[in-house]
């Protein structure tokens, strides 16, 4: 089955698995989704991730979710910003902040996927993919 917005599908799968307190979630593979998983891992929102081949040689990304002893996840919210029908681009001076800088903005730049903090350091703007807090 084809999905019209694969990044939104990934975010929805993460949000649903997080609310249901699953240990892991499987997401169909793409380079953009792998980049998002890498950022989530670097920022400490997930335990880890890995790529796997399943039946018929289909590749997936398995994301292992993180919870503390009380069952609370570091991911309180995920929001898709730029959509296929309405792309949102920001230049280096107008990159948005989530919760005054406590959250993370994932941006697709000419230098690849990066967080808002990395984009500001490198002085680049791009398409705002999603917010995580």
Question: Could you characterize what this model shows?
Answer:
By secondary structure, the chain is of the alpha+beta class. It has helices at residues 6-19, 31-42, 116-122; strands spanning 24-28, 46-53, 59-65, 78-80, 89-90, 104-109, 112-115, 126-132. Strands 4, 5, 6, 7 and 8 form a five-stranded antiparallel β-sheet that branches. It starts with 5 loop residues before the first helix and ends with a strand.
Can you tag this structure with a few keywords?
single chain, 133 residues, alpha+beta, 5-stranded antiparallel β-sheet, 32% strand, globular
- Largest pleated sheet: 5 strands, antiparallel
The percent range for helix content is: 10-25%
- With helices defined by DSSP (H or I, 4 residues minimum), what is the helix count? 3
SS-based structural class?
Answer: alpha+beta
Report Rg: 15 Å
